[in-house]
Fold this protein.
Amino acid sequence: MSDKYTRFVSHGLGKDIAKRLGLPQPVALRRHEPGRPLIEGPVLVQGSTSGADDLAATLLAWNLDVRRHAIPKEKLGAIILVLDELAHPGDLEKPVLTAAASLRDLAPNARVITVSRTADSATEPAAAAARQGVDGLLRSLAKELRAGATGNGVLLADGARTTSPATLGALRFFLSGRSAFVDGQFLTVSSGAGQLPDDVEKPLAGKVAVVTGAARGIGAAIARTLYRDGATLILVDIPAAGDHLAEVANEVHGTALQLDISRNDAGQRIIDHAATRHGRLDILIHNAGITRDKLLANMDAGRWNSVIAVNIAAQLRINEALLASEHFGDAPRIVSVASTSGIAGNRGQTNYAASKAGVIGMVRATAALIGERGGSINAVAPGFIETEMTARIPFATREVARRLNSLQQGGQPGDVAEAIAFLASDAAGGISGEVLRVCGQNLVGA
Ligand code: NAI
């Protein structure tokens, strides 16, 4: 699970060799640690609209060092490019090229974030073209940034403004070290719902959360991150993983529920456990998942069915039970773990990709249902993450897979957990039916 190469090329001789041979030069990413500032260095808010003014005023109130105009040669922590009034592709030139002049002044691990409107909410073709243009612009810029810097975008649908709670929540997430391995991605804010936390270090205080597949890997990292953020936890895994599950549950002061999620009564068992101990459940994280890889030509019913049963059919059944329950919170939140295989496809993974693409379809269709209860549902699609699963990939294949993204390294389980914790928080309340990739901007596939 270690990435010796990244450590070797981070300094001294290794750095020199990599530079001379033109080899990848991944850098250690800035990750969130409690107590650390949201972003190091000034934040340039570029754009001349009233939405840009409002946003800059809000960031000032957060005590960030905000600039409305660049100071030559000053190192910047972030550039926020506000493009919320585009009417024609010609409108891009001035704000974009003004921001471009500051790109060389970005500090290592800096952030570039666009704030613009969704193209499909435009009524005029020229406005839609300009808005969609931001997509190509941002994704290309993210591929040009170096030294751990990332580029991501916030898209505002009709009901959202530059200072809506979830716009600010998404901006905080993208600015912070919590989004270290999120690159070249957009989050759409569809409404003014949501609420920023009173205590930024404990955004999940008072929430009861269930995490499935929590005995190890990404699930255990999710449990630790939600606990750090203040949640009370119920951890689920199969009975065979009972010992590891108990260890993680003890560590995060939660309770363990040994349960195969593909059982017909899994949803009811989860609700009963939560209701008995806490009187309710606020957050459900569908993380448990399995792979049974084979080329489709060699696929058998056992491999196909087990992957569909655990990765998607179980989630559908559990959601149905929870959404029918009076114990599933006032503003319930579901976050499901998909995969970039479900977006771009992956050789040998037709069953897995069908199940993970299924998760994406499920999330989009469930958004309206859970919205009726004031809640939200989203998915996170991890790319190459350093886990026991990926450590088993043969060396050469693994090395190629982990370098083929804009950050030239694999993500950590904690990176996936951070994205999930954000989407499970009330700060993301106005974001629903979305899929956020945590993949360092994979260069292959979608
Ligand atoms: P893992 O195999 O290390 O952990 C999965 C956990 O789920 C295990 O503790 C397992 O016992 C549990 N589980 C499996 N079937 C279950 C069932 N029927 N009922 C209850 N628990 C069950 O996997 P990892 O790497 O931590 O992956 C977690 C999630 O992230 C999965 O959904 C996986 O598909 C997804 N993912 C992982 C990526 C990676 O690079 N590791 C990339 C993309 C997605």
